[in-house]
Amino acid sequence: xxxxxxxxxxxxxxxxxxxxxxxxxxxxxxxxxxxxxxxxxxxxxxxxxxxxxxxxxxxxxxxxxxxxxxx
Length: 71
Description:
about 70 residues; mainly alpha; rod-shaped; transmembrane helix; membrane; transmembrane
């Protein structure tokens, strides 16, 4: 006669192993997505800085033109 507990663990261990592998794969995916998000935020910050510099240059030129026209 076969012990039912043995059969339970024999079928449960591979299921648990597959579950842990899936969790590890998800963790690796989340780490990859976190890194991708960090890079994206860094690039967006850089682009916003560039846009602000362009905006302030144009704004300064407009102010200088207004100053020259009021003299």
